[in-house]
Design goal:
The chain has about 725 residues and is of the alpha+beta class. It has three domains: about 325 residues, Beta-galactosidase, Chain A, domain 5 (Distorted Sandwich); about 300 residues, TIM Barrel (Alpha-Beta Barrel), CATH 3.20.20.70; about 90 residues, Sandwich (Immunoglobulin-like), CATH 2.60.40. It contains twelve helices and 39 strands. A nine-stranded antiparallel sheet has the order 6-7-8-9-20-16-15-12-13. Strands 29-28-27-26-23-22-21-31-30 form a nine-stranded parallel sheet. Strands 32-33-34-39-36-37 form a six-stranded antiparallel sheet. Strand 22, helix 4 and strand 23 form a beta-alpha-beta unit. Helix 6 runs parallel beside helix 7 and helix 9 runs parallel beside helix 10. Bound molecules: alpha-D-galactopyranose (GLA). The site of alpha-D-galactopyranose has 11 residues, from loops.
């Protein structure tokens, strides 16, 4: 519920469990007063204390009063050059070369339903589900306008924000920093959690105290990156899974980003998030508009688990879209680790027939089916079937696979081009390259200039033909390198700073076109695994391959970190061969399946190489996955242990919203001789409900939660168990 109290010029944004508040001060500055547990709506303006602080300048309206300074006030959208020396959200280059912007309140509107952003992904909500507040600010001296958007989802405890900048003056203005949101939290003792890593080791949580000065994570790779996810958490020092105040902020965007946490001279904490200002310069002629992408925020007064569950619900129901949003996703078998580039029709049919017998529902033909693509040096950009490998094209192959009772999907990497390709021969200028400078290769390939509509449309036209040529129900959209040599032949020199963002808009435009033309195709996002795992992509692709690392034990770490923001239903996860291709580690088929079930579930191996026993185990696993699907994909997720800290075992739980059923999954670490007894403690059960625990007995919820479930002893390294609890 959005409330404006005219007498005190106060905005209250209430969700079921939180309140977000800011006010308009007498000089038109927006001052942030509160974000936290739900309150009645009284103004927290009394906390805006003022003192004459040396070296903190005063706006002219203050006259001889030296106590008011933007440098010390909590602000809603702090600009630059007029008195606040903390990290701004806005930086400009005015026509006269000055860099000041001073945004003051002009007007606001409150409406039902959720705002949308043209060409950009955003959470959505029907009337009754969400409300929108728009606050118009203007710099009276240049005419630059900023409309702050707030989407309030009461039931989800979610608040979204975005900003639309418009040059309302008569001179050009360039935006050199246009972040999406600022959260000024006042003086609090907080920890910052970021999700960091590398290719094959994404989203490992890193928790550290917020210290004086600036802590920053960012990506300037053109994509979200394996190195830092565009989701961050601020939480009270002692906050844990089930207690403490926590704030989560996610950027709904898939390009360069920056998140800054700054502790000021007086201990106040500021969080800002948005597009990275690095090589960002957006030129606005009079009347022109720039929209900064959306940020989604949630606050939990009861720990990290609730914070994560708020995001999970919101992403599942109000970000993912389309045909596959609530439908059960097919159990797939992907050919990458089964065959790499080495396949032809015959081999695919053999793999398919072996997979079909185990209950696999979808065969995905990964990289290597198009152009002259026999290794990763050539062929990207040539999106036509390699008839040497697949005589007759896709139709005869897909028909035979369909006849086995399976669907069929393909891999694509539309944003890329190999120099050895027809596309590059015909259009060398379509690749991002700086004239007169040798371009940098990544995985031996170049990046296409997707800021140019004719480029992505031409690639799309090729892919569309392929998708129309056979019964294709799934596409894996990959992206396998960071952007370099970022220069476009289609933009003048002073607009090259717009290119990173325009590239992302091109990617979104092609995805939107594909979804419109093929609404029933399930698209899985991918970027060398989890390099572009973000809320922006999830608006187009309801699942994303979480990592190129399929090792079950490593995946425990990756999936643990991923779960802080993203629901199980979005996490692409497969059972692969043992020993694992990336680590050489051996784990049981059972353990690999327990881990992969905490994701979209599928296989990434050659089923022909499995023994009969393993193949019947595979069949049983697929049945189990289907049996537990409603819990795994729609249940409330809880992290019962922290695999970075707890060496004995890793455990997590999916619980039905009505608490009548739960699945507790456990994977043990290395075995020890004469080991102590281990117990796992489920969470969030109904204390008075009687649960049947598969193969063990009937117990009250409180008995199970407070007494725990004993884990079996012995059995070697990396044992695993799933405990299914069901109301009697
Ligand atoms: C990326 C993906 C893999 C696979 C290969 C194919 O690395 O993450 O799953 O599709 O590309 O080249």
């Amino acid at each position: 519920m959005i409330e404006f109290v005219a007498s005190s010029r106060l905005f209250n944004l209430h969700t079921h469990h939180t309140t977000y508040q800011f006010l308009i001060d007498p000089n038109g500055f927006l001052l942030h007063t509160y974000y936290g547990r739900r309150c009645g709506g009284d103004s927290f303006g009394y906390l805006l204390r003022q003192a004459d602080r040396g070296f903190s300048p005063n706006p002219r309206e203050a006259g001889r009063d030296r106590t008011f300074s933007l440098d010390t006030q909590p602000q809603e959208f702090p600009a630059v050059g007029v008195g606040d020396f903390r990290t701004p959200v806005l930086e400009v280059e005015n026509a006269d070369g000055s860099c000041a912007a001073d945004l003051r309140y002009v007007s606001h509107t409150i409406s039902s339903g959720k705002y949308a952003l043209e060409g950009l992904p955003a959470f959505y909500g029907e009337e009754g589900e969400a409300e929108t507040l728009e606050v118009l600010l203007r710099d009276p001296w240049t005419g630059l306008e900023a409309t702050l958007y707030y989407g309030v989802f009461p039931q989800l405890d979610l608040i979204t924000r975005a900003v639309r900048f418009q040059n309302g003056g008569s001179q050009p203005i360039a935006l050199t920093r246009a972040m999406s949101a600022c959260l000024d939290l006042g003086r609090m003792d907080l920890d910052l959690i970021t999700f960091d890593g590398y290719h094959t080791g994404e989203r490992h949580p890193c928790r550290q105290a917020v210290r004086p000065g600036l802590q920053q994570i960012s990506s300037i790779r053109g994509i979200t990156s394996h190195q830092h996810n565009n989701f961050v958490v601020l939480c009270q020092k002692d906050a844990g899974e089930t207690h403490g105040l926590c704030y989560g902020m996610a950027l709904v965007y898939s390009g360069n980003f920056e998140a800054n946490v700054e502790r000021s001279q007086f201990g106040d904490v500021r969080l800002t998030m948005g597009i990275s200002p690095w090589h960002f310069r957006f030129q606005l002629a009079p009347g022109e508009v720039f929209t900064a992408p959306e940020v989604a925020m949630t606050c939990s007064g009861s720990g990290l688990q609730t914070m994560s569950q708020n995001f999970h619900r919101a992403i599942r129901h109000n970000l993912c879209r389309g045909w596959w949003k609530t439908r059960r996703r097919p159990v797939l078998l992907n050919t990458w680790e089964a065959a790499y580039f080495d396949f032809d029709q015959q081999k695919l049919l053999e793999i398919a027939s072996s997979a079909a017998e185990t209950g696999v529902e979808l065969l995905v033909m990964d990289d290597g089916w198009f152009g002259e693509r026999n290794d990763d040096y050539e062929g990207l950009g040539d999106w036509f079937v390699n008839l040497k490998k697949l005589p007759g094209g896709l139709a005869p192959l897909v028909e035979q696979i369909n006849a086995m009772g399976m669907d069929f999907g393909i891999w694509i990497e539309p944003e890329m081009v190999s120099e050895k390709s027809r596309l590059y021969q015909e259009h060398p200028d379509w690749a991002l390259q700086i004239p007169g400078r040798p371009s940098t290769r990544g995985r031996s390939q170049l990046v296409l200039d997707f800021s140019r509509e004719e480029v992505w449309r031409s690639v799309y036209a090729q892919i569309k033909k392929v998708l129309e040529s056979a019964n294709i129900t799934y596409v894996k959209w990959d992206m396998n390198r960071s952007l370099t040599d970022v220069w476009s032949g289609a933009l003048p020199a002073q607009r090259q700073g717009e290119l990173y963002h325009r590239y992302v808009l091109g990617v979104y435009a092609m995805l939107e076109q594909m979804i419109t033309d093929f609404p029933k195709i399930l698209i899985e996002g991918c970027s060398g695994g989890g390099g572009r795992f973000d809320c922006g992509m999830l608006y187009y692709t309801p699942q994303i391959w979480a990592s190129d690392n399929t090792d079950a034990m490593d995946r425990l770490l990756i999936q643990y970190g991923t779960s802080f923001c993203y629901p199980t239903s979005t996490v692409g996860s497969h059972v692969s061969a043992s020993p694992n291709e990336q680590t050489g580690r051996r784990t049981s088929l059972q353990t690999r399946a327990v881990v992969a079930m905490s994701g979209t579930f599928g296989y990434e191996l050659d089923p022909r190489k499995l023994s009969e026993g393993e193949r019947s185990q595979m069949r049983a696993q697929i049945d189990e996955f289907k049996r537990f699907y409603h819990l795994l994909q729609d249940g409330d997720y809880a992290r019962l242990t922290n695999p970075f800290r707890d060496q004995e075992f890793t455990a997590w739980q999916h619980t039905a919203p009505d608490r009548s059923e739960a699945l507790v999954s456990v994977v043990a670490g290395m075995a020890r001789s004469n080991a102590p007894f281990r117990t796992v403690y489920p969470r969030g059960l109904d204390p008075d409900m009687i649960y049947q625990v598969d193969g063990w007995g009937c117990f009250r919820g409180d008995t199970l939660m407070y007494g725990g479930i004993p884990l079996p002893q012995g059995g070697g390294d990396y044992q695993s168990w799933q405990f299914h609890l069901k109301k009697v």
